[in-house]
Amino acid sequence: MLQGPGLFIVLLGVLITVHELGHFLVAKACGVKVIRFSIGFGPKLFGFTKGETEYQVALLPLGGYVKMAGDTPHEELSPDDAQRGFLNAAPWKRALIVVAGPVFNLVFPVLIYFFVFFGPHETISTRVGYVDPAMPAAAAGIRPGDRIVAVDGDKVRTFEEMREAFVGRFDRSIPITIERDGKQQIVNVTPNRIVESSPVDSVERGQIGVAHTNRPAVVGVPPGSPAAQAGLKTFDRVLSINGVAIPDEAALNEQLAKVEGTLELTVQRLAPVPAGVVTGYSPSVHKVTVQKQPGAEGFAALGAQAADMYVGSVFPGSPAEKAGLRLGDQLVSFNGEPLNSFNVLAGKLSTLKEQSFQLGWRSADGQVRTETIAQASHTSKDEMGQESSRLELGLRPWLPSSAELLPTDKVTVTLGVGEALREAATVVPKIVGQMVKVIGGLVTGQVSHKTLGGPVMMYQLASRSVDQGLDYFLNLMAIISINLGVMNLLPIPILDGFHLLSAFWEGIRRRPIPVRVREVANVVGLVLLMALMGMALINDITR
Prior knowledge:
Number of strands: 26
Strand order of the largest sheet: 6-5-7-8
Number of helices: 14
Structural class: alpha+beta
Radius of gyration: 30 Å
Largest sheet: 4 strands, antiparallel
């Protein structure tokens, strides 16, 4: 299989060829003479001549070009070539030739995504692995193990389709079809409204409180509770009850429904181990004897709670840490109202922005505190070194590691030609819209210039395809192709967008832009482009 350098060359080579092929084919169709079609810049490596056009591959693969007769002012041409020169062509022809490159870059991803979507694909099913006890799904009676078949009458096959079905659907009763024990039934759920925000976009969607992951049975232990008196501690993971293995919460509920009286629990406990500036955790196994609480179910039967509302981590320097929140504290209220779920808290925070609120919590010694607090901007870097900022409170619930999770239920979805093409034609305009918003954000300052990437970042992303697979590489190619198409349509001198603007100008004013103005504009455009490339390269180096 190709390694990083080979994948990088293939990525650039294909995208450059697609772009220049657009210019080339339309120029030929419009009767403009094409002298040279080059993939890459600099000295020629190899090539051949067919008809009146030379085809070549050059040394530097960071670009390419189509050399047309008469595409620069003052170029000396024979009378025949002058008639077929680019600048002598009708403005509408020049506009078509210029726009063809970016258009090919925008259409090509539709073809890429068609091949990505076409055929069978294994993905996460709609089987529910976890139900948040304080969210609408639990109130409607949805349980772990149920399979969601339809949302508001729209069939869903994958967990992502189910999630997308709730975009714009919230704060009203929605019928959801579930399958349980081989039989279908309809339950009515009223999703909570949440706002998912990024530097360039915001999406309002409904949230019902289900997840596809099968979570291990981890307890939260209030001070003075029967669980605490028996010796259980917050974040203990129940491994077995009376010798019966407990892989997840569903198994815990099932086993507790069968037994009474004294329960012999085997639990795994993580003890903090300081290691310099960081803290690690060492697991140990303990035996705990608990009396089952009469008439109670689930964690309550152990005299405990789910660990959902117990703080699993606090970011250093965050508003949460400054307010006094610590690991193991239990969140109890939000603006005076009882708080029973981190998902509920996240939903409320998504609509508050920087607005302050009152948060109440119970510390490990049993004291209840209430403080006025507000989210603050938190900057983080992803694995590629790109920085992003978002509003954060600075705390997280306990979350299982990937090693603690059981395999998620998968389903094979097969898309035919029509459906794959429809999906591809839908996703590309969405990405184009996001790209336009990113460019606008860079201009207005809403998006940091540190998000820009250059050749080094492209090389790193292409190299990851070795591990991520073909679909990752094709998706990367599609996104970069769209990026090239959108960027080239900007009305910046030396880019296709400026030539398109020039053609429109001439078509409307009936005279071309003065040569001197064009030359100055090209110099300015070159300086701007070099500055942009320099900024991207600096970002690459600092990453």
